[in-house]
Amino acid sequence: MKKVSFAEFGGPDVLHLVDAEEPHAGPGHIRIAVRAAGVNPVDWRIREGQKLGAHPIELPSGVGLDAAGVVDEVGEGAEEAEIGDHVFGEGSSTYAEYAVLSAWARIPEGVTFENAAGYPSVVETALRIIREVGVQPGQTLLVSGASGGVGSAVLHIARDRGITVIGTAGAANQDYLRSLGALATTYGEGWAERVRQLGHVDASLDLAGSGVIPELINLTGNPQKVISIADLSAPELGVRFSGTAGSMPEALTIAADLIARGKLHIPVEKSYTLTQATTAHTDSQTGHTRGRRVIIT
After folding, report:
1. Which of 94, 132, 163, 262 has its CA 20 to 30 A from that of 57?
2. Which pLDDT band, with edges at 50, 70 and 90, does 151 fall under?
3. φ and ψ at 206, to 5 degrees?
4. Distances (CA, A) of 33 to 1, 36, 98, 132, 223
5. Which residues, 6 or more positions from 221, have their beta carbon under 8 angstroms from its beta carbon?
6. Three-state secondary structure along 37-67?
7. Mean pLDDT along residues 150-158
8. CA separation (Å) from 112 to 71, 86, 235?
9. pLDDT above 90 (res 154)
10. 8 pLDDT exceeds 60?
11. Global pTM value
12. Is 226 within 8 Å of 133 (Cβ atoms)?
């Protein structure tokens, strides 16, 4: 089979499409014929060799954690899955024609493989950081870098829970944030004052890693009410860096429910082929995403 792999840490150019042996489902796992794989910032952070406190790897390594496809092999103990099921979930080396998943859920009716593939990690991350930052219904959450996949998921989940969101993003994504129910403002000089004009902030999330943590602390009044998933220096300022995943099965169950109820729909900004994995990572690292990116196999 074909899969994307890298033999050394580095930039997007270390990615190569190679011939590899097909993986097989061990106990409690399933194998899918991959139809689409999610492209997430964690993918290129791992490729660069960043120390995230999770996802330890050995080189050479495949790429990708999220995927959607058709079950074609069921491991011992995975009785809830059947050959032919259309599922989305998390595994390893998902930029490939076949991948093994350790957590999965059936794709809700009417949802394409392309759309489903990008949900697992972004929804798990959104659920985790909303919980960790401690924001409650009726309070206001500030999200820096709100237009990407995780930000979009945070906005959907917060709205469903009765949490007001103020989101920052580039000028081109202001209408997109408002369409998701957020109070929107742009980056750049004076952004913190623009946020203050929109309302009191109870908690904040740094999703872009753009050096705004001091301002987020100032706006919330407490570093413990700030969480970052993008700035590894956050702990130096007393802010928690959240890099270790929580319960993916729970996240997939919640994602499937939100999708089925029409409460979660994050657009796919761009699709790539396996041969375009380098371009996918280059584009992801530039930021300014609206929604998600996926690889079609």
Report:
1. 132
2. very high
3. -100, 105
4. 11, 9, 5, 35, 44
5. none
6. EEECHHHHHHHHCCCCCCCCCCCCEECCCEE
7. 96
8. 15, 10, 39
9. yes
10. yes
11. 0.90
12. yes
Find out whether 74 and 51 touch, Cβ atoms under 8 Å. Answer: no
Two tokens, residue 207: 């999703």
Do residues 294 and 118 make contact, with C-beta atoms less than 8 angstroms apart? yes
Q: Which two tokens stand for residue 218?
A: 């100032």
Which residues are registered as beta bridge partners of 99?
32
125: amino acid identity, one letter: T
User: What tokens appear for 59 in the block?
Assistant: 């080189």
In angstroms, the first-to-last Cα distance of the chain is 11
Structure tokens at 173: 């994504």
CA distances from 283 to 114, 170, 277, 288 (A): 18, 16, 10, 9
Joined together, the tokens standing for residue 167 give 């989101």
Q: Tokens for 143?
A: 């999200």
